[in-house]
Amino acid sequence: MKPYIIVFSTTTLNGKIASKTRYSKLSCPIDLMRLHKLRSQVDAVMVGANTAIIDDPSLRLKYFKGSNPARIIVDGLLRVPLKLRMFRDKLAKTIVLTSTKAPQDKIKKLRDIGVKVITLQSSTGRISLKEALRILYEMNIRKILVEGGGDLIWSLFKEKLVDEFRITKSAYIFGGLN
Questions:
Q1: Cα–Cα 20 to 30 A to 121, which of 8, 25, 74, 174?
Q2: Is 111 helix (H, G, I), strand (E, B) or coil?
Q3: pTM reported for the whole predicted model
Q4: Domain residue spans in the chain?
């Protein structure tokens, strides 16, 4: 069993989720309201390592009543800095999915500050999302909103783990690779 996976993404007219400079603020106020309504309806919000590093999001609930969903970071090599807002604020449970290739001292530091670290076997540093989702389901996480980034979203689609995809087209056009 696995949680129900909703991918929510805003793209430019030409399908990009960020510019070459990594600018990714594409949402309008109405789209942000939709995003926060979704956050109010899920057990957890998931992002990849690059999104956590570049955006340092809090992933907290705004505009709607309810509990903050758990925050999940997928980072097989544990590249995220210890100073992330998600690690400092205690607004919601924070879970890091990492691999046996992650530095053990960093895992210990995260656990010492109350972060739940789940380590999965890997010879490459890439974790099995299928196995990670099974573990999250066992933790009673039934519905996850995936907010990015591109690598995580692509991996979920590639492994056929996405149940629902919500996309908004913004009025921007970007060049670049993403």
A1: 8
A2: helix
A3: 0.90
A4: 44-169
